[in-house]
Prior knowledge:
The chain is about 70% helix and about 0% strand. By secondary structure, the chain is mostly helical. It has one domain: Orthogonal Bundle (MetI-like fold). The longest helix has 28 residues, at about 250-275. It is elongated.
Amino acid sequence: MSPPGTRPRPAARKPRRAPWATSCEAAALLLLLAAVLAGPLLAPGDPAQPQGLPWSPPDGGHWLGTDVLGRDVLSRLVAGGSGLLAVALPAGLAASALGTAAGLAATRHARTARVVLRGGAGLLAVPGLLVVLVCALAFDARTAVLAGMLLVGTPLSARVVYATAAPLARAGFVQAAVVRGEGPVAIAVRELLPAVSGTVLADAGLRVVGALQLTAAVSVLGLGPQPPATDWALMIKENLPAVSLNPAAALAPALALALLATTIAVGLDLLARRLSPETGR
Length: 281
């Protein structure tokens, strides 16, 4: 409390960000994703053909050296991210979308909330990697990762969205929509979803990163793309035995995978902060 006779100090305002800053963040993230998806077209050489001795160190002709079969590491690095992202991006977004729908639906009915939360808790008890490995024995890697994310990622998204949206279900703007006669679906889509859009966006980034990790794990365990496919996780597995001869052959794809995951998570989190009601005003 302030001493008698003194006026309370106003709360410190958070610095405002220019609208173009958010646009730049979104553009940078989209450019990175586009560059990774278009990697096979940007590779400086043929990523499948040997171009030197195996595990040669970097030189003027091969900036990152060569790999286990003498192929150019840089060419394989540029071309190797599209396959990972093509599997992880739709799997992560699908889990986030279904979880968002379930979390918003749970805010409208107590019975639905019990089903979503308790059922999700049961699914979370199953290790995601175990689900992916079992599915990979019967299906391809894409289907296995999708199944693992839907079974494990969806309940997580549902709980996050429900925790954010549940307090808003009794807010004035929602009650006004009820008085206007809008149905549960319209209220969830038109009223609650915009209010929790920041949380949904940040959670989607986490789901995509989780799908990237599962996709890489499947490839490292030998259940994903097979040689001579260009895949960052497969590059790490192939070049680990001789990492002392050319460390870049294994370290470069590992760093690229970490950079991609970090950029997606941080980029979407920054965009989510711009959309949140507390920082968006």
